[in-house]
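Hi F.,

I've been meaning to write this up properly since the lab meeting, where we talked about keeping a consistent format for the predictions we share between groups. The idea is simple: the sequence comes first, exactly as it goes in, then the structure tokens exactly as they come out, then a line or two of notes. No screenshots and no reformatting. I'm using this chain as the first example so we have something concrete to point to.
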Amino acid sequence: MTLAAHIVGSHGDIHSLTLSERAALASLPPETTDSLIIGTKWFCVGVATYITFIWLLKLNMLFLYQRIVHGLWVEKFIVPTMGLVAITYFSTLMILFLPCRPYERMWIPFPDQGEYCKPQSFLNMVPPLVMNIVTDLCIMAIPAPVILPVRTTIWRKLGLLFLFFAGFFIMTAAVLRVFFVLVVS
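Output, unedited:
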């Protein structure tokens, strides 16, 4: 993800240009357009890598939970949640890669590729956000009934509450990211 971000930062991205700026690319040297196309391809790689990274972290948490709650009644929810995470991961990748046909339209400078060939489109942002939040809530719900009633010191309870609120912070950050891309920009 860092490599992709660095390449996009140095080459640029076609999707960050207005339609009139993209039309003006025809009068510029081909190296300028080629550089933007390389940056746009790496932007697409970065988005796919980001999604893969987030969903792998979700599975990582579930494997950790599997060890922690082994033998407890909440253990039965881990495998179905893993299935949900896998299904939402593949659904998110399908949303990202299938609507834009042929996929090479994603980095055509001009004419406009259409709504489905923009990584910042409603289709590419909102359904994955919903799946992200649903899976996060399911992951957080597994240990909650077991951990919250535990009798322990106030500091450990505060630590547990901090962990749960960190999950809500991450969900809030995901919602704000989509909000700022779709509404503010």
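Notes:
The chain has one domain: 2-184.
The radius of gyration is 21 Å.

If this format works for you, I'll send the rest the same way.

G.
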